């Protein structure tokens, strides 16, 4: 018969085993061949940890609260709708521009990119659900108490949207439909 110490030890061991099994089932293999559009691309989630790169200087992660996530999605979707409606000079109405929703897996991959402390697009951030995931980059050196995180987010989204001047309808028309098997 197990004593209380043995039972406690058994429960802890079972909890650790179940936790490892659950985590293994939840974390996709980002190193799997075929996940990136080109097999020569390195996936941001392949063989990485959640730790900041040693080259990062005084890094700080801003927690993405539900309120911030909603703000970011609302701003993106309003601007995308403005573009899709054909109300933006030089752009025709869009035929298939769905609303964007927050995705925790893409947010996790974005966090991995940020923690490298390199202001560059990663080669691949594809997921099974979002094979052609895009990416927006921005950074800001913040001085204490001058700006709220929400104001910074708003400035980032406005800056990203201003990039529409670098594109054209000809550029958009040059895109091909992704193969049906990955949609």
From TrEMBL:
InterPro entries in the record: CAP_dom, CAP_sf
CC terms in the record's Gene Ontology section: extracellular region
Keywords: Secreted, Signal
Keyword Secreted: yes
Keyword Lyase attached: no
Cellular localization per UniProt: Secreted
Limits of the SCP domain: 66-180
Residues in the signal sequence: 1-24
Transmembrane segment boundaries: none
Pfam family, one: CAP
Protein name: Venom allergen 5
